[in-house]
Amino acid sequence: MFDWLIVGAGFAGSTLAERLAKVRGDRVLVIDKRPHIGGNAYDRHDEAGLLIHQYGPHIFHTNSQAIFDHLSQFTQWRFYEHRVLAMVDGQLLPIPINLDTVNGLYGLSLTEDQVEDFFASRAEPAAEVRTSEDVVVGRVGRDLYEKFFRGYTRKQWGLDPSQLDKSVTARVPVRTNRDDRYFGDTFQFMPLHGYTRMFERMLDHPNIKVMTQTSYQEIRDLVPHRRVIYTGPVDEFFDFRFGKLPYRSLEFKHVTLDQEWFQKVAVVNYPQTEDYTRVTEYKHLTGQSHPKTSLTYEYPRASGDPYYPIPMPKNAELYKQYEALARATPDVWFVGRLATYRYYNMDQVVGQALATFQRIQAGEPATREGAMAAGG
Ligand SMILES: Cc1cc2nc3c(=O)[nH]c(=O)nc-3n(C[C@H](O)[C@H](O)[C@H](O)COP(=O)(O)OP(=O)(O)OC[C@H]3O[C@@H](n4cnc5c(N)ncnc54)[C@H](O)[C@@H]3O)c2cc1C
Questions:
Q1: Residues 223 and 314 both lie in one domain
Q2: Lowest-confidence region among 71-80, 164-173, 246-255
């Protein structure tokens, strides 16, 4: 008899498996329907021996000392600050938009003070900020919005920014200085030997058994277990009773080139041209030395694996129905990005899992109000 059946070996499932086995001495079975652990953060060496991320670039960043310290038990780190360029009007320019973006695009030589006035003179504030378009046009004006955001958003989501909730672009900062880092977090690192190695160390405990290529549906009635931690899609758990929760998917095209470098930074965005949204060159992230280089092209898709919950009010309403069902389901804890239908970064999922562990330790039932999205 297992104390826990944990569905999904990503950050949510693996973080909880480790805590439950190590701190409580519980017996844990972790399953994943994919042929590997690590969930979407899974990385692997390709045929050329280059470390690549199977499901697109994953850059670790957090402001939480506690989360950083927790993960540091399972990996050493490589200092890495993420930088992204966007191909706009034939030029490679920093994104998030900063002083160099504006000067480069318009052939100007503004100072920090002047660029704030520049944004103010172009901005068209909306009476009520509701959509992603309102956020960006209200801050930097229509031209920068069209060039950097509109096309990218339409590709990424298959929707115009005017149809998307303001939260989608609210997280993209605009800077008046020359800071070209993509994230402003205190801790910005990559796991030195990759994510998969880190997950292997997390799950390496005599009380943890891992089965990949195993789905919840095929095993739930076969393996005796007391309680469940479910990190898969919440609508699937309930057999899509109220309909499918909408997701945006991606297709990843991985290529290796017989040249040492392809682009100046890890990620180049294509907001105006091309079918793909961005190209990632992994050696910038991993620091690996190799005569060849591996890249991933990302093509947004309407169907396929669920990657991004689509942030629209009607989808949030549908999720609420599932959330109510989940709260009424005893002995099943719903944790992680798919089970709580939220776009979470890796550190947020670890935080959510650690908070869930605290509630389990405190003896709280899975059905308690707030138990699902704890800490996220
Ligand atoms: C393209 C992309 C880029 C990203 N980049 C970043 C980044 O740079 N930085 C960052 O912090 N975050 C990033 N993220 C977010 C990051 O991937 C998530 O925060 C993290 O993977 C969530 O972990 P999780 O355990 O909740 O889910 P997942 O990693 O998705 O793990 C869930 C697992 O459950 C398994 N599963 C589902 N249903 C079943 C079932 N019925 N039976 C058995 N197994 C099942 C799945 O196979 C999956 O492996 C990115 C996400 C995407 C899509």
A1: yes
A2: 164-173
Residue nearest to atom 49 of ligand 1 (CA): 39
Nearest-Å Rg of the Cα atoms of the chain is 22
Phi, psi of 157 (to 5 degrees): -110, -10
Tell me, yes or no, whether 8 lies in a domain: yes
Cα separations (Å) of 329 from 137, 139, 237?
Answer: 44, 44, 11
Question: Does one domain contain both 98 and 239?
Answer: no
Question: What are the φ and ψ backbone dihedral angles of 201, each rounded to 5 degrees?
Answer: -70, -35
Residue 161: give the domain boundaries.
84-170
Query: How many Å apart are CA 55 and CA 217, to the nearest integer?
Result: 24
Task: Give residue ranges with CB within 6 A of ligand 1.
Answer: 7-13, 31-34, 39-41, 55-59, 215-216, 231-232, 250, 307, 336-338, 344-347, 349
Q: The pTM is what?
A: 0.95
The protein residue whose alpha carbon is closest to atom 37 in ligand 1 is 232
Q: Is residue 225 part of a domain?
A: yes
pLDDT at 240: 98
Q: How far apart are CA 94 and CA 288, in angstroms?
A: 24
Report the separation in Å between the CA atom of 115 and the middle of ligand 1, taken as the mean of its atom positions: 38
List pLDDT tens digits, range 128-151: 988 889 989 999 999 999 999 999
Question: Is the same domain home to 31 and 139?
Answer: no
276-300: per-residue pLDDT in tens? 999 999 999 999 999 999 999 999 9
Q: Quick one: angle between helices 112-122 and 99-106, nearest 10?
A: 70
| CA–centroid distance, residue 113 to ligand 1 (Å) | 41
Residue ending a domain, choose from 107, 138, 170: 170
CATH for 219: 3.40.50.720
